[in-house]
């Protein structure tokens, strides 16, 4: 009889994934080889995932869901693994973001992830690693997450994007003149797209700024609206209609106080001159 390695799902998220895979495989009476053939993987690969020696991929998770008839269970478990370095509710938010037909967002202090250059994103992630907030591997994952989110919006019919940034986003230099200059160029390219509106909320609006934390509002294909907000320690996806409507009202008021698109582009060009 084969020596079956005992699994401790509580030891790590990867171990929890492996234990769940073994549980569903055993319940349906598949050997590792049989499941592997149904999924297009070797029995060794399935074994390595089950025993947490190999990290599952999104493709592996999709094939597991198909082979085991588990809906999107393993895809959702993969997202927990993939985005575990980030905040609560962020995996669900990213999934909805990739399907949204309209994205409204407000950011403070840093350029929003959806329009960050790879170098800007890398600088932020590496800085967090140097401070000890995350590991170097988690820093790599953060950069990949930014890239994946941006790729999800590169579709034949991209979403309408309404972006309001606090003036601090373009004034705060990240990575030195070269990286910041390239990032401001990226913003100008973004502002020139037919599906985008970019506005800067200037310091001069003072107390009329309606948000003190970043917020994103997603309009989904069925025209329902979700809201996602973050603090320093957690993220929260809001689905309750009344709360989302309140945030929509505040967002519209913020847009009214912010500089118009053309004036915002002019301000970015002015700030760009300092990073030659």
Automatic annotation (TrEMBL):
Stretches of the chain forming a coiled coil according to its record: none
GO terms, molecular function: DNA binding
InterPro entries, per the entry: Cro/C1-type_HTH, DUF5753, Lambda_DNA-bd_dom_sf
HTH cro/C1-type domain residues: 21-58
Entry-linked SUPFAM superfamilies: lambda repressor-like DNA-binding domains
Record SMART domains: HTH_XRE
Entry superkingdom: Bacteria
Protein name (database record): Transcriptional regulator
Lineage, opening ranks: Bacteria, Bacillati, Actinomycetota, Actinomycetes, Kitasatosporales
